Amino acid sequence: LGATIPADAPDDPWGAEKRATGSVDVGVLCGALLPAATSAQLLQRVETLVARPVDPRIGVALEGLLRAVPFTSNGARGNLATIFDAVGRLALRDPRFVGLVATLDTDWDVRPAQKEWMFKRWAKVQEAIDRHWPTVPRVDDRSTLAELLASLEDEPAAPDTVDDLIARVLADPHEDAPRLVLLDALLEAQDPRGELMALQLRGVDRERQDALIAEHGTTWLGDIAPFVRVTRWRLGFPDAGEVEVRHPRDLTRIATHPLWRAFSEIQVDGDKVDVLGPLFDHVAPTLRGLGSFGPLLATMVPGRPWPALRRLEVRVTARLAAEALAAHPLPALQVLSVFGDDLTWLSQAVWLPHLR
Question: Cα–Cα distance between 230 and 213 in angstroms, integer?
Fold first, then answer.
């Protein structure tokens, strides 16, 4: 990689690239991948390289980054996951990553709990890589590798659009790393949502945050705006809200709207909960908090998985509903608010030991 960097390379190659996209040789960018001023800057650089036409120098740089472990704290696991996934996308065009997991133990010199998480998270990516390359191409030198990769390349990947970046946020709504990449793009475009995200990230100027939400919130909510009153925004996206859908026909256009996945908590109208089944199916994999003052919610929690649900507020008035709820696995449940005349069924709940 170093041998490919020309002597007249700019002192700030990534700054030059930002000012004029495509103006800096990819080898120069790879050589300047580290250090980065912020984690968001590093993640944006990684995404930029992965979006470039295939080049063996990109593989060299990202393998080096993967081995270097640029983030080691628990709070930065989202950043590591973003890097892992980016490497996974690159590896579909570069076979150097086949079987890489067997060589990472020495490089990943971090505390045991963090190493365990890293290997578990990387295993998902490694499995996809190894499945994509059932046989490992034999490559004896750099020119052969370049020829091989060139033969795999179709069209150069188009730069990510804002819609692409938003889709990544909603695909992994509890991780901050995709939001930080989006934040950079929005600030560069002078988008007001980027201003809101920056203010919320720093935890400052609540008055300005409220003004931005009041002016643009309905636009950001799009089709779901008439059916939810947002009570909390987090890093530019709705995070908690009260949902009210009065008729099943309303669900035909909004039940599976991608933006529902941004909500970590929802409160639902007590009288019409029974029409929300399709919405619950959509949000159940990621929702962390759910509540209703009416009795119908207790009948709708069983029958669908809630792997991330931490808080549940529910009224239980029927014995059959109570028994079904008690027997339904809620592996992440920590906080329960339950109302009803007979709560003896709680002692049989399979999730009771998890409660705080």
Answer: 10
Task: Establish if 67 belongs to a structural domain.
Answer: yes
**Tens digit of pLDDT for each residue in 131-173?**
888 776 665 556 666 665 665 555 555 567 888 899 989 988 9
Q: Tell me if residue 265 falls in helix, strand or coil.
A: strand
Q: What is the Cα gyration radius of the chain?
A: 24
Q: What's the one-letter identity of residue 118?
A: M
The first and second tokens of residue 174, run together, are 């509890």
Cα(44)–Cα(111) distance, rounded to whole angstroms?
27
Q: Among 163, 202, 158, which Cα is nearest to 40's? A: 202
Residue indicated by tokens 């750099």: 142
Q: Is the dihedral of CA 116, 119, 123, 124 positive or negative?
A: positive
Q: Is 338 part of any domain?
A: no
Number of domains in the chain: 1
Percentage of the chain beyond pLDDT 70 is 90
**Beta-sheet pairing, 289-291 with 265-268:** parallel
How is residue 110 written in tokens? 């971090």
Structural domain boundaries enclosing 73: 2-159
In order, the DSSP letters of 81-92 are HHHHHHHHHHHT
